[in-house]
Amino acid sequence: MATTSAFKWPWQYDFPPFFTIQKSLNTKDKQLEAWARLVIDYAQHNKIYSLDIAEATTSELFNNQKLNRRLSTDGVNTVLQYLEQKSEQFFEFFRRISVKKM
């Protein structure tokens, strides 16, 4: 019988400022890159093929209950827009997942 492994969260997930989109362009770009990688890894690990933004904002992906921090709906939209802009880099993800916007 195969066992599934728990998802391994990146170190940023336990860093409270990660849940607030940063204003500094250099920092923001690195942050969005980390969020993009997290969304893709999480979706692949959990075999998620569609993403409803309204539901996503309350899911563990964007809501760290341990820290009592969550990424705002605007933040989630920013992350997904970043993924869309970087579609060449993340093409495999966008080819397989559909995003329901609010």
UniProtKB/TrEMBL annotation:
The keyword Cytoplasm applies. Keywords: Cytoplasm. One of its GO terms (cellular component) is ESCRT II complex. One of its GO terms (biological process) is protein transport to vacuole involved in ubiquitin-dependent protein catabolic process via the multivesicular body sorting pathway. Its main location: cytoplasm. The keyword Cytoplasm applies. Pfam families: ESCRT-II (PF05871). It is found in: Cytoplasm. GO terms for molecular function: protein homodimerization activity; structural molecule activity. InterPro entries: ESCRT-II_cplx_Vps25-sub, ESCRT-II_cplx_Vps25-sub_N, WH_DNA-bd_sf. This is Vacuolar protein-sorting-associated protein 25. The lineage of its organism: Eukaryota, Metazoa, Ecdysozoa, Nematoda, Chromadorea. The gene is Cni-vps-25.
